[in-house]
Write a structure and sequence with these properties.
alpha+beta; about 180 residues
Length: about 180
Amino acid sequence: MKVRIATPRDARGIADIHVRAWQVAYDGIVPAPYLAGLSTDERETMWNTILNKGTAQVCVAVQGDEMLGWICVGGSRDPDAQTRTAEVRADYVDPNHWRRGVGRALWRMAMERSKSAGFSEVTLWVLEANANSIAFYASLGFARDEHADKIVELGGAQLKEIRLRVQLPHHPELPTV
């Protein structure tokens, strides 16, 4: 497996994983009609724009010609963020490759890129009902920011998101599990 910076030609693969991962990870959390209506074509357009603007760093994990997952990190968009706070804006692995080290490899690259850009901490938002993602991020050292919750509306459902936070270590090793 290789992790590299994404290019605009990766937009379709990123969009495909984005939709499929949502449909599996959020099954039973987000209303089924909303998940069924997700469009790879619409997500591809969105990712083309993001990749061409370069406002966030997107890294992809690939094995040969197959994309395994991706992560998008940039400066935090939260109004209470410090200037040295980065944000994982999105992070998804192809469901066929879950629990095989892809997410950890992506995080390692994102952490290194964030540190080299001058960030000292990283936050992310996750649906409170998404126990698998919360456990994964906890294994990387993320902890809940008790003062930051919000309600988002997806498919007519009101869902709670919680913010997780981690300080970047001086040395980019991942904690062992």
